[in-house]
Amino acid sequence: MDHVQIAEKVDEAAVFAWLKTYISNVLGMDQASIKGSDGLDSLGLDSALTTALAMDLETWLGVEIPLAILFEAETLDNIAAGVAREAERQHVTAG
Amino acid sequence: MLNRGDQIAHQMFQEVQLPGQPRQKVIDSPHLHKMQRMHFFLFDVLPILGTACAIVLLFFHPITSLDLTLFLVFWALSGLGISIGYHRLFTHRSFKASAPVRAALGIFGSMAGQGGVISWTAMHRRHHELGDQEGDLHSPNLHGSGLKGKLKGFVHAHFTWMVAHPYPNVVHYAPDLLKDRVMIWVNRHYYTWIVLGLLIPTAIGGLVSQSWMGALTGFLWGGMVRMFVVEQGIFALNSLCHLIGRRRFVTDDQSTNISWLAPFIFGESWHHNHHAFPGSASFGLAWYRIDPGYWVIRLLALFGQAWDIKVPTKEQIERREIRSA
Ligand SMILES: [Zn+2]
Ligand SMILES: [Zn+2]
Are A56 and B20 within 8 A, CB to CB? Predict the structure, then answer.
């Protein structure tokens, strides 16, 4: 997974791009077919895969992501927004 | 010191790596622990209660040959699904199989109620990666020394580790399975397969005997009791087969062979052989050792449904044997 770089500062768009690349790599599907309105479930990610995604997302961002953000969100857009917010919040508290 | 099988597994773990920080391989989360507790109660505790009911019922209503048949058939199907499918094929890739066979093995394995095939595979690969070292999800040997430590270890490895445990990163441990559309589909419908595994013996029991009592005993013997028996067998691998029994090879873990258990768990209890040669489809490593799982793989091969069956040569086996000085 050569695309993944350690994040400096991330916004919603950066998180969404990461999600798209990650999911297409893991499930071997076409990146262009993944839309912001897709849900994890409809893409084929069950709780096992969602948990793995959370772990790798945490490694990428260097912050802890509550699993609830991923499990409760309806769409990739929602996830990107929630994750970006959480990363921002933790960076503010840390720095 | 890694043997060849371990090297292959090791390579597989390294395949998908992130640059920069080391990847997070397991996670502990309250959300997951809640799901694990629920799963533990439904599919590990309930079958014990169901088995107790079945035994009490025997005093009022003798077991029928239909109940026994349902028990044997569903015990064999779900047990072979775990041993041949989950374990020898999906986790260790010790042979190749056609898509229908992969799907069938995955579905029968799911009926055993031991987790979805992707989770099971990830957890078991981690067990081989860390065998009896810190991080092994179910080692009986990390709970202190002496009889008390061993007893505590036994209870943990056999049963209570499942109540709440670190959950492995499946993208790290099972990237190969995630690319297999058939297995993604089987995995997604895990709970459906469990329910079918309980419903089918219930329906057959009721229809064949034309009675509600037959449906109940079909459910108990073909569902609950067989689930209990398959589970206790697999749990014994985690507990007994890392505690008592014989060792023959040099391995980094404390795995053992328990020959008398082999007929009851499809040959799985040649567990030490398996840790020494994880990539081998045969656990017995010789024709005269009882290994029904391997025999069925050979049978599948006879019909062209399994191929590339990996077994170490005599020389490879001898090279690994413990030499007494
Ligand atoms: Zn083991
Ligand atoms: Zn194994």
Answer: no
